[in-house]
Amino acid sequence: MQRKELRVILISLIVSFILTGTKFLAWFMTHSVAILSDALESIINVVAGAFACYSIYLAGKPKDENHPYGHGKVEFFSIGFEGAMIFIAGCLILFKAVQFFFIPTTLESIDKGLWIIGGTAAGNLILGAYLLGEGKKLSSLTITGNGSHIMTDVYSSGGLIVALLIIHFTGWTWVDPLASALMGALILRQGYRLLRQSISGLMDETDMQVVDKVIAILQEHRRVEWIDVHNMRVQQYGNNYHIDCHLTLPYYLLLNDAHEELKAMEKLVNDSFTSGEVEFFIHIDPCLSSCCHYCQMPDCAVRQHDFTGVIHWTRENVLPNRKHGEE
Questions:
Q1: Final residue of a domain: which of 167, 202, 237?
Q2: Statement: the pTM of the whole predicted model exceeds 0.85
Q3: Which residue range or ranges hold the Cation efflux protein cytoplasmic domain (predicted)?
């Protein structure tokens, strides 16, 4: 999988390098600050692509003594680095836009610039859609983040084309720095979103979509021995997940039988995740008499209370550190 991720990101790097050079050619021809802004943003595509290559290589290294959970967290650094670079580029673009409001330049060859920017926008659209699709299939944060950035470049290029068309047909050169300022604001927003995602991952913020997916898998395939699951925590390392939880089992199970239940739960979740690996650290709790009313064990010789119904597992009763039914 790592080899495929590297191939995808190398394609992104090469295409971004070519498109960036093309945009700077359009700027030299037109002297448009809006085109310069678009070209400056594209430089970030190249720098971020190079950093992404390294982060994918590092994330694919096996666990070692110093990194017992693997190296997958570097992907959050990757998207954080990309977000920071995008944010800086947005600030520079806004600065140049304000500067050109007061010191305008003469625009040239707008029609040629339109064709060039249109071509680069089409190229980025194809590249961005490819990266987002591959990032989803490979569950790669780095590729998905890179694809999101490329798509932002497409949107900004679309706005730039509209601005150049207005300038071409009306001669309103003040539209040029205005378009640059709007692009800068859009780029700042995208940079903030990537930085926010990076910080969330590095701070181990819970991804509730992943939690809901794990709970749904366990709920659908729950075994009668699994009396309840609680105190669940999910951490993401690249496209791998580490899950801690407490599992309540009948207290009279033999150690070998209890171990088989843990293996069955881990295998169930891993088989349901199409990419990446899910590592479980499961703490076993023995059942108490208060568990009897929702325990599904048939013909239990030590049951002290009648069975009243199954408790449906949801994040509300799986995440807290208490057995179901406890206050």
A1: 202
A2: no
A3: 210-287
Tokens at residue 21, please?
A: 């050079």
| Burial status of residue 128 (CB atoms within 10 A of its CB: 0-12, 13-18, 19 or more) | buried
Q: Give the CATH number of the domain where residue 308 resides.
A: 3.30.70.1350
Q: Which pLDDT tens digits describe the chain residue by residue (327 residues)?
A: 567 777 887 888 888 889 888 888 888 888 777 777 778 777 777 777 777 777 777 666 666 666 656 666 666 777 777 777 778 777 877 777 776 667 666 667 777 878 888 888 899 899 889 988 888 887 777 788 778 778 877 877 777 788 778 877 777 777 777 777 777 787 788 777 777 777 766 665 567 888 888 899 999 999 999 999 999 988 877 667 888 899 999 999 999 999 999 999 999 988 887 656 788 889 999 998 888 999 998 888 899 988 888 889 998 889 888 776 555
Q: Is residue 229 part of a domain?
A: yes
What value, to the nearest 5°, has the Cα angle with vertex 259 and ends 255 and 264?
150
Residues 290 and 154 in one domain: no
28 shares its domain with 58: yes
Considering the domain architecture, whether residues 139 and 37 belong to the same structural domain is answered as yes
Contacts of 267 (CB under 8 A, 6+ apart): none
Phi, psi of 293 (to 5 degrees): -70, -15
Q: What is the dihedral of CA 134, 137, 155, 209, to 10 degrees?
A: -150
